[in-house]
């Protein structure tokens, strides 16, 4: 450095040592040819001015604050200094640096004035409201933004207690916090409610910091950001969510409560129409009645199927489905589904083929729901398959040990871009062929997907227009386990305690 600079170190024994003495300091104190590193200060500093430095060093160490001392003009050197700036580095280190005469007190005063001017500009132009209060909790200064945002005049605020701006229910706590912040000097932030000039309440986010000036004077600087609009938006969103939740709950409750009322008359219609079609109590007479009865019976069964799908989806969305889980044989279940759907497939000129691996271990799941998944998938294939094609049901294990149930058809397929829509509830996809109009409620695939997910499984759909559709339902390996068969159950069930424990551990 071109200016004199050195460090005085205080040893554990209380002695003073020189450290980091630069060439300018040796030149100033006329010690160019002296090695002063590690020596006592008198080896560098003239004894006439040494007490002046030592006294300043002790004051800086005790206060922990920098100070400026005037340079002694008796030094025999051409380097003229106006003062020395003494800074505390650590508890035992003090740095001393010379300041040229032309940058002495006048220069420091100018820098101070510039700094004050800069801070004043920041205070005045800030878009955030700023309030300065004293130890008596009175306002001493506010910036233009606070006046503009909250409508008060500056003259109405200065010298008033700051709690007069706080909503009545928060004033006591605000006064207590102000006293604590002023005493401890800690920073704080939070939310508070302020009074506007028009009497309305505003929500604000505040940050406080204590400021200490000369002669021990303390002030608290509080920055205030208005968040009233944000709070109103949060309230609106919360109310909207509550209303949506209430409406959804009401819908689910209605559907659940109406299940009996909807199903009972349909069962009666189906049952009585069947009896009349079979002429249980004698001949009907006119063949036209039989035709109408067949229409009634078919329409009622179709309506019951739709209602069942809607109610099943409602129960799943409401979280009211309880799984009746146990081990069962996958091959037996697939065969059962194939037999059930074969008549419908045959009437459409289709064939169902089973391709299930011989050594598949039993699956731990709700066999009724897994069966419903396959019925939904095979039913969709029957609806949209071309005559004289095959619907394949495959069961296999993957390399990772999971189980895949795959239903593949060679029908008209689904446009690739429409696959996400097909998996949404009531998401019906229009097929651009007149021979295949949209059928059903659009719940078959979403129901199958939801039922698979209830078993920690996944459902994926691969399709494109004219290329058929492949639906893969995959269950985790934790649901497959080699168990000894227990005879006498619908699908050859197996022991369950160990698998339930494993699934619980996996969930954790």
Q: What are its keywords?
A:
Beta-Lactamase; alpha+beta; 5-stranded antiparallel β-sheet; Helix Hairpins; 22% strand; 13 helices
Question: How does this model look, in words?
Answer:
The protein is α+β, with helices and mostly antiparallel strands and 508 residues long. It has 4 domains: 5-103, PAS domain (Beta-Lactamase, 2-Layer Sandwich); 126-226, PAS domain (Beta-Lactamase); 232-317, Orthogonal Bundle (Helix Hairpins); 326-507, Histidine kinase-like ATPase, C-terminal domain (Heat Shock Protein 90, 2-Layer Sandwich), CATH 3.30.565.10. It has helices at 23-28, 50-63, 105-125, 144-150, 154-157, 171-184, 228-277, 287-317, 330-347, 367-384, 419-422, 444-454, 497-507, and strands at residues 5-10, 16-19, 67-70, 81-90, 93-100, 129-134, 139-142, 188-195, 201-212, 218-226, 326-328, 351-356, 363-365, 390-397, 403-409, 458-463, 469-475. The strands form 4 sheets. It has a 5-stranded antiparallel sheet with strand order 2-1-5-4-3. Strands 7-6-10-9-8 form a 5-stranded antiparallel sheet. Strands 12-14-15-17-16 form a 5-stranded mixed sheet. β6 (129-134) and β7 (139-142) form a beta hairpin. α8 (287-317) crosses α12, α9 runs parallel beside α10 (367-384) and α10 runs antiparallel to α12 (444-454). 21% of the residues are buried. Mean pLDDT is 79; it is low at 483-495.
